[in-house]
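ok trying again, last paste got cut off:
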Amino acid sequence: MEQKPGCRASAVCVVVGVRDSLVQTAHDGAGALLPAPVARPILPDKGIGGMRILVVEDEKKTTSYLRKGLTEHGFAVDVAAEGSQGLSCALADAYELLILDVMLPGRDGWFVLRELRRAGKDMPVLILTARDAIHDRVKGLELGADDYLVKPFAFSELLARVRSILRRSAGRTPEQIRVGDLEIDVLRRQATRAGKPLNLTPTEFTILVLLGKHRGEVLARSLIAEHVWNVQPDAGSNVVDVHVRRLRSKVDDPFLQKLVYTVRGAGYVLRAGD
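nice, full thing came through this time. structure:
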């Protein structure tokens, strides 16, 4: 697999810990290599895989410290070292959280936050800065930040604040998704069909939630791969097809009405009815 072109594949934003976590673990019937899912944090009241954090910070030691700690706790981390670059990444992609320094080269953190909110992006933002004055804290919160942490900081406190923000933002994702007689409990990571529990793997559940959140919409294979493994599949790869086939064997095969449909040349869609 190769990284998605754009922010994370350039020198601007760097994906951490993705390639190392893609290992050859199994073969399907056609001999396709299946990648192991990237480790993701499972929070008690979030329950959604694929959590990605963008860190916009120019101090290399701080960036390395954050990247290492957050990756070890299962997050996929992208980094940018300059304000304009960070803003471009935040506008171009979907992150569960933005950790933002204020004093950045070029455009500062205030500008990034202001433009992000002006563009209608509501991703949670944690300001991480050495500016500890009360008026700075007030300014950050009034511009739309969700939390404000002053440097120097303890990683344990930052991690607790990250988890708290993600718990609060869980309300932005529907807790229950229903498509026909399929019910997905996002927070409890459970799915049932006609009242019968579906025994899904974490990867299958992540794909199902993605399809469910976009029910009725055709999702490209590349989008599914990006969401689940944070990478783009190589040309000719059938990794997504293999996992969707396994998901379909549990969601559709035992039932008369089918819900997961293949749109030839486009991708997959979850919908009730033909």
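cool. The first strand starts at residue 24 and ends at 27. The CA atoms of residues 14 and 30 lie 33 Å apart.
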